[in-house]
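ok so i was messing around last nite and threw this chain in just to see what happens. nothing serious, just curious
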Amino acid sequence: MNMSALDVIKANLNVARTLIIDGRDRYIGVTRTALNIEQIYRNYRSRARLLSAVEAEKLLRQAHRESSEQICQLCRENGAIWVKFAQFLSCRPDLLPLEYITSLQRLQNDANPARFEDIHPIILANWGQDWDRQFSSFNVHPIATASVAQVHRATLLNGKEVAIKFQLPTAKSLFEQDSLVFTTLAKALRPLVREFDVRQVIQQLINMTLEELDFRREARNLKDFRAQVHLPGIIMPELFESLSSERVMVTSWVEGLRLSDYLDQNPERAKPLLQRLLASYIHQITQLGVYHADPHPGNFLITEDEQIAILDYGAIAHLSQEQRLQYTNLLMGLMGFSSVKLGELFRLAGFRCDRDETLEEISDYVVGDNLAGLSIADRLSDSLDKLRKNKVIMPDSFVAMARVIITIGGFMTHYDVDFEFDPASVAA
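result:
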């Protein structure tokens, strides 16, 4: 007999300590949400046995919608890293059904900033007692706050304006608590929510956030990315390495408006800017083999002269020369520009499944009339959905690449910009 989510949580003394002592009220909703989701999918499976395949599919989608709303509410209540996790999941159609993606995309990160008194010990540990002598001005009030960090604006003695990213004092402790609870929930829900692999999703979230908690990694990512030859009109901030550390990162200040704010104010500029952004990401993936892997709308600024500044380098992905070639061929195949059968391209790229025929069947679906007229982003999204439902094992590097293109495609759809694909732009 399967244990309920509540039974599993009670059985784990470490989690019990987190819930009762460390987390206090923060995790009261976790158990409630786990039980609610468990019941939603139990009800679905009980009723689906009596329905036709079409009716059962409709019922399953309703279960996905109800469960995703439960998760959204929980993330709003707990905030911080929970919202970050939700935002990550909202860009993972390879892992989650569309109903989850739609619900999670509505979540916004509105974390509360830490007081300057709480940030001050980090400043002293990194820059010493005379830290303020390095600046001609320093704004003690943060300009922006996210799930694990907040950003302050300052001016160095040489007149250069900088953005200083401080890790929130509670980020690591909350992450340790949250990851423990998430891991336990994954164990509890895995046998109950069989429609997707909960444990795989949670583990990827934990690994991603753990990497982002070390700003030295982000600093290396920024240096690596800046060293590449990018397309015109794409810029990134300069790193001030001597002032940066594990919990502090200092870069040049980029003056501009967030992409969404700029396009809302200047809708007629959506087409050239978004097509340039798409071209940049295609170039990063197919030509550079190094690409920015977190294309959240807040990570793009539009400067006064309409350059696109890419921010936040916690997630940078690298592709080998072989992967670049394979994924370029797959992109060409998805759009019907390759003479090689798509099923063979999938196999060459490392896709695996129990039935050899599955990849051919999915390929026939993709290159047939089913996806005619769709953009490459929509084709990727639909293909990932088919691959996921057929339990095809996909290379992590392909999933990350597809997520990026799908996300950029989402921007273009939102602003009604055609998703143009030029085969010459991905010539290897």
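not much to say yet. The first strand starts at residue 135 and ends at 138.
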